[in-house]
Amino acid sequence: MGKSSLVVCILGFHFTVYGQQASESIVLPETAISQAEQTTTVLNRCPGIETLTNKDAPDLIYNRVVRCADLKEYDRAAELMFIAMSFGKFDTMRVSGKVRHHAPARSRIKALNKLNGSQLEALHQALLVKFQSPDERQYLCRKMRGIGQPSYQPDYMLNYHNPISSRQTHLTAPSTQIPIFEQELAWESVFYSFARCPV
Predict the structure, then answer these.
(1) Is the predicted pLDDT of residue 162 greater than 80, yes or no?
(2) 138 assigned to some structural domain
(3) What was the pLDDT predicted at 183?
(4) Is the CB of residue 89 less than 8 Å from the CB of residue 142?
(5) Three-point CA angle 114, 117, 118, nearest 5°
(6) Could you give the number of structural domains in the chain?
(7) What's the chain's average pLDDT?
(8) Is 164 within a domain?
(9) Domain of 178?
């Protein structure tokens, strides 16, 4: 399967299959580790799901997916994909404008294009394995519940402009302030309808 086919396959991957940025600092215990050793540790570590907070937007998480894939930690990359795609779905519920709803997929494309064909294939296989197991899905849903509802401003969507679209003008003031009650309902919808978390 070619690289473009794999990117399309991964982009089309939904959770219906039954079944830090590298420059971001990692907190290390205070020891006598040199700056060079710290830099090496950061560069050689996959910033997995345990590093995420509800302030991390999907575009940042997709960069972490690439970092983990570069380190051949595809299981961890797949876990990050689960969260990034779920956060992106939530953002489409709280930001108006159909054109802007392409921003999460665009972020995913931009990040995954940094991977080669074999990396994309390995990531795709990790996604399939991860989501076919009810135990793995339960684990990911529990982790996402612990991270919590996104609290970041979805700037990657608000600033998204599709140069091909001629309908961009009606999106000058998108809505991001839906009532708290509706945000909670939207977040629950992500869990049960999109990520297919067990009840």
Answers:
(1) no
(2) yes
(3) 82
(4) no
(5) 110
(6) 1
(7) 77
(8) no
(9) 3-19+47-158+173-194
